[in-house]
C-alpha cells in the first residue's frame, strides 16, 4: 500500500461547511453535488459540502475549512460531507440506517419473470465490472479520515463504499482496518458481524489469526456482560 | 221459638285461600329476584317491580290446602307486558278467597219437632288487580298496584210471625261490599349485591262500606302502613332477604341458586299469630329461558285444626286473608312462561367510538383496520358470540359484517367495526353522514343498535399521511398503464437497443420526460384541506403539487412494473415534501452504466438479499429527467443520508407495494 498521509486540525465539531483548496501537489479532480462531470481542482477553489475530490497517484490536496485543515494523499477519494466529527450515537444511527434503507417487500410480479421475445442487444456484452479503482480510492479516503480523528465518519464512509462498490467488500485489509475501529469504539456486536464476514473471505493466515483473536476477544466480552 | 244455645263458636268451613294484604307471598319473599313469577307476587311485596318480564309474561299458581276446601285450586293467573321501560300487569285470583262460618248460638225448633241451628257466614275475596311500574334506570324503578276486593256477610236470625197462630221463622240478613286498595312502591339497586324495596300498605282504600252496622266489625282491616325490603347477595349464588312491615310483621329468607335451580326458605312473623315465628315457606324452582316451575309450601308451626271463638275474631279482625291465625298449611305449584315477541338483549352498546374519519379512497385501510370500536357489555351469565354489523349512510346499501367477538359473562369488551367501501363509490364533496352499528347474537334481529355521526370526506381528500398516498397511486393504475404503454411503445426502437438491465432506468426516464416534464406546479385549492389528485386528474389538469406529481409519476412507473417508493421529508417544519424513489433493478456493480457520480444512487437490499440501485427523482423540478434526478439525489443525500434523516425519522421511505 502506498504511503498515505493526512493531517487535520480540529478545533470543534465539524459539520456542514465549505472548504477552500489551500494547495495541490500533482493532479486532483472534483465533482460537484449531483453533477456527472469531473473538473480539475485548482488552488483557491471553494468547495461546497457535497463535493467529492479524488487524487491521482503521487498527488495530494490540502483543504481549509472553518477552523479546519485537512490534507489527504494520493489515490484517495473524499466527499467533503464526510469530513465531520461524529459521536458514537451518530455512528450507531448511521449503521442502523443501512438496514432501514432496505426495501421491505418482496416483489413477485417483477418484469424479470416476463418472457421477452427477440434479442436483447448487449446482454452478452454486459461489462462485468471489477473492484474498480474508485471504490478503493474511497476506502483510502476513509482511512485518512479515520487517521485524522474522525473514525466514526470513516466507518460510515467505508460501509457506504462496500454497498456501492461490492468488490471492495472482498478486500480484507480494509475490512479489518474498519472492523478494528468498531472494536476500539466498543461496538462489539457490530465489529463481530464484520469479523465473521471477513473470516469467510480469502485471507492470509496472519489475517485469519488476527480476525479469530478478535472474534474470541469479543465473544469473551459479550459473555462476561 | 226455642233458642237452644248460643255458642258463638266459629269454625271455618273453608280456609283454603287467603288474600294477602301485605308483603306475604305464597312463595315467600325473595327480594328483587329474577323470577318470571313476579307479576303474581309483586302486587303484595314489591309493587314497583315487574321488570323481569322482557315482553309477555304468563303465570299461574295451582295448589291445595291441607284442609277441606270448597274453593278453586287455581289460586291465580296473571299476565304482564313490558313496553320499553313500562310494565303493566293484570292478575285474576279466583282462589284468593277466605270463607268463615260460625254458629250464632240460636236454635229454632221446627214444626216437625226438629231443631235448626242458625249460622252466620263471611266471605272475603280478592277478585283481580292490576299494576304498573316504570323503570327509570337499571337501578331504580317505581310503580303502583290496585286490587279489587269483595266481602259478603250473612247472618241468620229468628223472626216471629204474628198472626192467629204466631210462629218463628229463620230469616237471613246479608250485605255485599266491594272496595279497592291501592299502593305505591319503589325499588333501588345500590349495587349488584344490595337492593332495597319500599312500599305502602293500604295507602288508598275506596269503595263501599258496610251499611249494616252489625257487619262493620267484620270488615277486612285496612290499617295504613308500610313495608321495607332488603335483599343482599353475599355471593352470586345466594341471597339473604328481609322485609319489615310497620305492623311489626317481618319475614326472613334465604335463597340459593345453582345454575337453573333455586332453593328458598322464608320464616314469617306477625303479631296475630303464635308462636313468634309463625311458619316457614320452603320453595324449590327450576328456570329456563322460556319457563319457570316452582314448588312451594306453607307450614305453620301451630295446630291449625282447632275451632276458634268469635270473640277473638271480633277483637283482632282480619288483616291478612292469606296469612292469619285461621290459615292452613298449603302446597303450591307455580308455572310461569316468559314469551318474547321482541328480541331479548344479550348484549348492548355502552358507546361507540369512531376511530377515524372516512377517506373513501383508502378502501383497503378500512378492511385491515377498524374505523370504529364499540364498547359492548354481555348482559348474560354465559359467553356470548357477537356479530358486529355496520352501515354508513351514503356508502353502504347493506350492513357490513365484521369479525365476531366472544365476550365473557357480564364482561365489557371492545368490538371492532370494519368497513367495505364499494369500488364504484365516489364523492366530490366532504359531508357529515351517519353510521349505524348493530350487535347480533343468536337472534335474527339485532340485540342493540347505535347511531353516530361520521365525517365522510371526498374521494380526493387525504389525511396527510404519506403512507396513504399509495391508494391514490393504485386507484388509476389502469389509466396510467394505458398512457405509459402508449409512450413506451413509441420509444420501442430505443428500448430495444439498450444494454441488458437498463430498461427500467430508461423507461423511467422516458415517462418522466413525456409526462411530468410538461406539467405545471400548482398548489392545492384553497380551503380544501389535504387534497390529492388522481393520476387521471393531474394529467387532465396539466399540473399539481408535490403530492399529485409524485402520485402520478409513481403510478406511471408502477403500471409498467417499476418498483417505487415515496420519500416523505418532514424536515422542513410544518411543510412536508414528497418525492419519488424508483428501483432500476441494477446491481451496484453496474452503476457506472447510468452515472459517473456515486452520490446519485442508493443501494437497497431486497428480500432476496440482492442489492439494487434506487434513484431519487424530484418530480416538482418539472424539468427533464436528468435534472430531476440530480435535484432529487442532492436533497436525498443531504436530508436522508448525511443528516441521518432516515435514522432519526425525519425522512421516511414508503414503499408502494
A few lines on this structure:
The complex is a heterodimer of chains A (225) and B (657). Chain A is of the alpha+beta class and 225 residues long.
Tell me about this structure.
The complex is a heterodimer of chains A (225) and B (657). With 225 residues, chain A is α+β, with helices and mostly antiparallel strands. In chain A, 39% of the residues lie in helices and 16% in strands. Chain A has a 5-stranded antiparallel β-sheet. A 4-stranded antiparallel β-sheet of chain A has the order 4-3-6-9. In chain A, strand 3 and strand 4 form a beta hairpin. In chain B, the strands form 5 sheets. Chain B has a 14-stranded antiparallel β-barrel with strand order 2-3-4-6-7-8-9-11-12-13-14-15-16-18. In chain B, strands 21, 22, 23, 25 and 26 form a 5-stranded antiparallel β-sheet that branches. Chain B has a 5-stranded antiparallel β-sheet with strand order 31-32-30-29-33. In chain B, helix 6 crosses helix 10 and helix 9 packs across helix 10. The longest helix of chain B has 18 residues. In chain B, a hairpin with a 2-residue loop joins strand 13 and strand 14. Chain B is built from 12 helices and 33 strands. The N terminus of chain B is likely disordered. Chain B folds into 3 domains: 331 residues, Porin; 110 residues, Sandwich (Immunoglobulin-like); 190 residues, C8orf32 fold. At the A-B interface, helix 1 of A face strand 31, strand 32, helix 11 and helix 12 of B.
Amino acid at each position: 500500500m502506498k504511503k498515505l498521509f493526512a493531517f487535520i486540525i480540529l478545533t470543534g465539531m465539524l459539520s456542514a461547511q465549505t472548504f477552500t483548496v489551500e494547495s495541490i501537489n500533482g493532479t486532483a479532480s472534483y465533482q460537484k453535488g449531483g453533477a456527472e462531470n469531473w473538473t480539475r481542482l485548482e488552488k483557491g477553489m471553494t468547495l461546497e459540502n457535497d463535493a467529492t475530490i479524488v487524487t491521482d497517484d503521487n498527488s495530494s490536496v490540502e483543504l481549509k475549512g472553518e477552523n479546519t485543515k485537512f490534507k489527504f494523499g494520493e489515490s484517495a477519494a473524499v466527499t467533503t460531507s464526510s469530513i465531520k466529527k461524529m459521536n458514537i450515537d451518530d455512528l450507531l444511527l448511521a449503521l442502523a440506517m443501512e438496514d432501514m434503507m432496505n426495501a421491505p417487500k418482496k416483489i413477485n410480479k417483477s418484469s424479470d419473470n416476463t418472457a421477452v421475445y427477440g434479442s436483447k442487444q448487449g446482454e452478452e456484452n454486459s461489462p462485468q465490472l471489477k473492484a474498480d479503482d474508485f471504490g478503493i480510492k474511497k476506502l483510502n479516503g476513509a482511512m485518512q479520515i479515520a487517521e485524522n480523528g474522525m473514525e466514526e465518519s470513516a466507518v460510515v464512509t467505508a460501509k457506504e463504499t462496500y454497498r456501492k462498490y461490492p468488490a471492495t467488500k472482498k478486500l480484507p485489509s480494509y475490512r479489518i482496518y474498519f472492523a478494528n475501529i468498531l472494536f476500539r469504539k466498543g461496538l462489539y456486536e457490530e465489529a463481530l458481524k464484520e469479523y465473521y464476514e471477513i473470516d469467510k473471505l480469502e485471507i492470509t493466515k496472519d489475517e485469519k489469526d488476527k480476525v479469530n483473536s478478535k472474534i474470541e476477544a469479543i465473544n469473551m466480552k459479550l459473555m462476561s456482560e | 221459638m226455642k233458642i237452644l244455645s248460643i255458642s258463638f263458636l266459629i269454625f271455618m268451613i273453608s280456609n283454603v285461600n287467603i288474600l294477602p294484604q301485605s308483603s306475604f307471598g305464597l312463595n315467600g319473599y325473595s327480594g328483587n329476584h329474577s323470577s318470571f313469577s313476579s307479576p303474581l307476587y309483586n302486587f303484595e311485596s314489591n309493587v314497583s317491580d315487574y321488570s323481569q318480564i322482557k315482553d309477555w309474561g304468563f303465570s299461574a299458581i295451582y295448589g291445595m290446602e291441607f284442609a277441606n276446601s270448597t274453593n278453586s285450586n287455581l289460586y291465580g293467573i296473571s299476565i304482564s307486558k313490558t313496553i320499553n321501560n313500562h310494565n303493566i300487569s293484570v292478575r285474576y285470583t279466583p282462589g284468593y278467597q277466605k270463607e268463615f262460618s260460625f254458629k250464632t248460638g240460636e236454635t229454632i225448633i221446627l214444626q216437625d219437632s226438629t231443631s235448626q241451628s242458625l249460622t252466620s257466614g263471611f266471605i272475603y275475596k280478592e277478585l283481580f288487580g292490576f299494576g304498573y311500574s316504570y323503570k327509570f334506570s337499571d337501578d331504580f324503578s317505581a310503580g303502583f298496584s290496585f286490587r279489587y276486593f269483595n266481602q259478603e256477610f250473612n247472618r241468620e236470625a229468628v223472626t216471629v210471625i204474628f198472626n192467629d197462630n204466631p210462629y218463628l221463622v229463620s230469616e237471613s240478613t246479608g250485605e255485599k261490599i266491594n272496595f279497592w286498595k291501592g299502593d305505591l312502591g319503589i325499588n333501588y339497586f345500590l349495587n349488584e349485591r344490595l337492593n332495597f324495596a319500599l312500599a305502602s300498605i293500604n295507602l288508598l282504600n275506596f269503595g263501599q262500606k258496610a251499611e249494616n252496622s252489625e257487619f262493620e266489625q267484620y270488615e277486612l282491616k285496612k290499617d295504613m302502613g308500610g313495608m321495607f325490603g332488603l335483599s343482599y347477595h353475599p355471593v352470586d349464588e345466594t341471597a339473604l332477604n328481609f322485609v319489615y312491615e310497620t305492623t311489626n310483621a317481618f319475614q326472613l329468607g334465604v335463597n340459593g341458586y345453582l345454575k337453573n335451580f333455586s332453593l328458598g326458605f322464608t320464616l314469617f312473623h306477625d303479631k296475630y299469630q303464635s308462636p313468634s315465628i309463625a311458619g316457614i315457606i320452603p320453595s324449590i324452582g327450576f328456570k329456563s329461558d322460556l319457563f319457570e316451575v316452582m314448588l312451594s309450601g306453607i307450614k305453620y308451626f301451630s295446630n291449625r285444626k282447632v275451632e276458634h271463638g268469635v270473640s277473638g275474631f271480633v277483637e283482632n279482625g282480619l288483616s291478612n286473608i292469606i296469612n292469619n291465625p285461621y290459615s292452613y298449611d298449603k302446597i303450591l305449584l307455580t308455572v310461569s312462561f316468559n314469551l318474547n315477541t321482541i328480541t331479548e338483549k344479550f348484549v348492548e352498546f355502552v358507546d361507540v367510538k369512531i376511530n377515524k374519519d372516512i377517506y373513501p379512497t383508502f378502501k383497503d385501510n378500512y378492511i385491515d383496520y377498524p374505523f370504529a370500536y364499540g364498547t359492548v357489555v354481555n348482559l348474560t351469565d354465559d359467553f356470548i358470540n357477537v356479530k358486529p354489523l355496520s352501515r354508513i349512510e351514503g356508502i353502504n346499501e347493506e350492513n357490513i359484517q365484521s369479525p365476531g367477538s366472544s365476550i365473557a359473562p357480564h364482561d365489557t369488551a371492545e368490538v371492532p367495526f370494519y368497513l367495505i367501501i364499494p369500488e364504484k363509490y365516489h364523492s366530490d364533496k366532504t359531508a357529515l353522514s351517519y353510521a349505524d352499528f348493530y350487535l347480533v347474537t343468536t337472534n335474527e334481529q339485532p340485540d342493540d343498535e347505535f347511531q353516530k355521526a361520521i365525517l365522510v370526506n371526498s374521494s380526493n381528500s387525504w389525511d396527510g399521511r404519506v403512507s396513504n398516498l399509495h391508494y391514490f397511486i393504485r386507484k388509476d393504475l389502469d389509466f396510467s398503464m394505458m398512457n405509459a404503454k402508449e409512450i413506451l411503445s413509441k420509444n420501442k426502437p430505443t428500448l430495444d437497443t439498450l444494454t441488458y438491465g437498463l430498461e427500467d432506468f430508461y423507461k423511467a426516464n422516458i415517462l418522466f420526460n413525456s409526462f411530468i416534464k410538461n406539467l405545471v406546479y400548482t398548489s392545492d385549492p384553497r380551503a380544501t384541506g389535504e387534497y390529492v389528485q388522481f393520476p387521471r386528474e393531474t394529467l387532465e389538469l396539466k399540473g399539481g403539487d408535490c403530492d399529485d406529481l409524485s402520485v402520478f409519476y409513481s403510478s406511471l412507473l408502477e403500471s409498467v412494473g417499476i418498483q417505487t417508493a415515496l420519500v416523505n421529508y418532514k424536515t422542513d417544519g410544518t411543510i412536508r415534501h414528497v418525492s419519488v424513489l424508483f428501483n432500476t433493478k441494477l446491481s451496484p456493480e453496474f452503476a457506472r452504466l447510468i452515472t459517473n457520480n456515486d452520490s446519485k444512487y442508493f443501494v437497497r437490499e431486497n428480500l432476496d438479499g440482492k442489492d439494487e440501485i434506487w434513484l431519487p427523482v424530484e418530480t416538482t423540478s418539472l424539468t427533464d429527467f436528468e435534472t430531476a434526478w440530480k435535484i432529487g439525489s442532492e436533497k436525498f443525500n443531504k436530508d436522508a443520508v448525511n443528516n441521518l434523516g432516515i435514522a432519526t425519522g425525519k425522512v421516511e421511505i414508503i414503499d408502494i407495494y
